[in-house]
Amino acid sequence: MPNIKSAKKRMRSNARKAEVNTFVSSSMKTAIKKFEKEVKAGNKEGASEAFNIALQRIDKAVGSGLVHKNKAARLKSRLIRSKNTME
Questions:
Q1: How far is Cα 71 from Cα 76, in angstroms, rounded to an integer?
Q2: What's the DSSP call for residue 4?
Q3: Mean of all residue pLDDT scores within the chain
Q4: Residue 50 near residue 66, CB atoms below 8 Å
Q5: Where are the domains of the chain?
Q6: Given CB 3.0 to 4.6 Å as the disulfide criterion, which of 37, 57, 62, 68 pairs with 72?
Q7: What CATH code would you report for 5-86?
Q8: pTM score > 0.85 for this model?
Q9: Above 80 in pLDDT, residue 30?
Q10: 44-63 and 69-86 are packed helices; what angle lies between their axes, rounded to 10 degrees?
């Protein structure tokens, strides 16, 4: 446990940031899984909605620095490919 006031504040802010980062990354993964589930079920309408949400969540993760832009491009490419093969 830190003794210095600024170190205590840093611990609090790091905890808040870690919570937000966990939420953003888990919501991104969940959105991708929902899209993959819709594709597997063959539901075009549901897959289209889930696709848009997944792209938004990936972009948000890149913006907050949780995911590298190349990984995001790879994830998006895979999603687009699976969406196109469904049609």
A1: 9
A2: S
A3: 96
A4: no
A5: 5-86
A6: 62
A7: 1.20.58.110
A8: yes
A9: yes
A10: 170
